[in-house]
Amino acid sequence: MGAWASLSEKTRQEMMQARAFLSAVAEPPARALARFVAERGARGAVDAIVRRRAPEPVLVEVEARRDAVSGERLLRAGEAAGLRLFIPERPDWPCEAFSELAGAREMELPDMAEPIALWVRGRAEPAECTERAVAVVGARAASGYGEHVAAEFGHGLSGVGFTVVSGAAYGIDGAAHRGALSAGGRTVAFLACGADVDYPAGHGRLLRAIADQGAVISEYPPGTPPRKHRFLVRNRLIAAMGRATVVVEAGARSGAANTANTADLLGRPVLAVPGPVTSQNSVGCHAMVRSGQAVLVTRTEEVVELLSPLGVSPAEEIAARSRPTDRLQPDARRVHDALRGVVSAGNEELARDCGLPLGRVRAVLVELELDGFAKRTESGWVAITS
Amino acid sequence: MGAWASLSEKTRQEMMQARAFLSAVAEPPARALARFVAERGARGAVDAIVRRRAPEPVLVEVEARRDAVSGERLLRAGEAAGLRLFIPERPDWPCEAFSELAGAREMELPDMAEPIALWVRGRAEPAECTERAVAVVGARAASGYGEHVAAEFGHGLSGVGFTVVSGAAYGIDGAAHRGALSAGGRTVAFLACGADVDYPAGHGRLLRAIADQGAVISEYPPGTPPRKHRFLVRNRLIAAMGRATVVVEAGARSGAANTANTADLLGRPVLAVPGPVTSQNSVGCHAMVRSGQAVLVTRTEEVVELLSPLGVSPAEEIAARSRPTDRLQPDARRVHDALRGVVSAGNEELARDCGLPLGRVRAVLVELELDGFAKRTESGWVAITS
């Protein structure tokens, strides 16, 4: 298959037509068809289907559309709609991303099969997007908090060179894409309809912007309308394309939870962003963390850290900004605390208050004075608070 | 030591005086003194200290206060302030709770030692509080969200019979106590000053209410003022008394994080409540979950579940409320989805749209009709959406 360049133009065109036909002749994920194509190659599979010589499960998957579909016509329709067709025979196919899906199909995991071809609107090539891609997904009916956080992650990941993959839906998806766009980074939307269909309708402009800076991709042929079950089917491509999936707000039962399950199934890390426990929008994220399915993340740096095997760890820097009094030994801190509690104090008084021997208190006071934490006055010792 | 009842009144009084003396003569946690008392008994230890025959480390701990402290006077002061003294020799001592602290002292863990005695304001006896106690702690400068959640946990835990243990501070502590009080449950405050001292001053009424429905407890003798280091020292008693510690809002570096560390050190589960990642108040909680130190919890039921070894699990009920269409088989769902996407449709149209064989579509439509998900009209099939 690496020999694409050495093929004649006619052979290439035949392969493109075959894949276009196969992308439309069965409803994805068509597992029998995907296996048959993997065994026979695209042209061989088409030939067998047209002659009705394919195995029964394949014939069942293609029965309804076999006579209505034409690869040639689809390629023309795609071209007219500004779509390019990417196929596994070409060297620019994102093989790694989808080989796990083929593996999952072989393992008979439900609803798992690699895409037969990808219809692409936009400049970027799928393969160049998968190299450093992170999926950011979540609820459509997101809160302001969720959208803010999704945009932050989209912006942050894009800013450090990751492609942000999502589903172009309202809510979290849209915010993640917008965050990536605002950082001038690359972002990819996988649709549950044709890549030429503006869905949701209110995201027409967003989809055009995504195509400009990345790609709008679908395994459905041009013009395919969205259907409810197609969203779940599409989710597997988002999960497969991301090296990790970040879930920002998800209800107890949601498409985002479905994407997370698939990522998990494919062995990709799932990361979940927490939120207020009073918000129904975060119930799914918290449940994923509690069950151990997801790692809790709060910032882009934590995602990057998790994806950087050698882990130069910018996230460790957080925490604990030190205070000057941190360097004090326990006895010195006790005396300093006692001094801070009073206007001024003498040595004996401090010794009693701290429960330290008088000699020790004297020694500590000298240290505190040298270090600038206490000073001697006419009425006794006084703390210098830093 | 179980023989308290068989002791003469004089012996009991001597023991009480000895413990009162020991509770004041060194600044807790006085590890050398605690070990010496564990070996010699309270009266033996006092005798040795007064004669200066104790080991050097003990003499260092007690040097500054030895001559100023009187057990008899302290007992009178406690009585005048309405405090009772609880000591390990009495059968109502909460031994289990503090035996881990003694163990930690033996293991030379820093700042770990069991309390030598407890001064108690209020009705409840420490032992009856420890049986089912949960610590709820968190930031003083809490957010409205944090206080709301702390009150919910306080109320919920108290409502199912747990004693809510905290530190009476502003913010999370106060909200947790108030939540417990509002459920009519028992709550215990450990102070970093004498149990008779109203600290923080603005919580005077709250402390009286806690004493009425539970107890205000301190290892510091009556009248001891609060000092900064005493809060950290006090935290170990909160951690030890709770069978688990719930952290609601904590900064990256905070007293609550310190209590959580101690609970962890003592082998008690640490539970952390998440919050918005945009809030500095939740940074500590998220860090604990990320590091694996804490389990994420969102509701009282999850805390109860974790503390109920046999786990009748009310928390599993959450999630996934089912929808009627959930029962549909994949093919039926596909057809139903397709029907929902159009005004009405004929069999062939549906077959093409779904990519299913015509015969299968016909069979599925009959099932959908029987189940009330679709109906036949003059213009074709129509979905009935549930």
From TrEMBL, chains A, B:
SUPFAM superfamilies: MCP/YpsA-like. Residues 113-307 form the Smf/DprA SLOG domain. It comes from the Bacteria. Residues 320-377 form the DprA winged helix domain. GO terms for biological process: DNA-mediated transformation. Pfam families: DNA_processg_A, WHD_DprA. Belongs to the DprA/Smf family. This is DNA-protecting protein DprA.
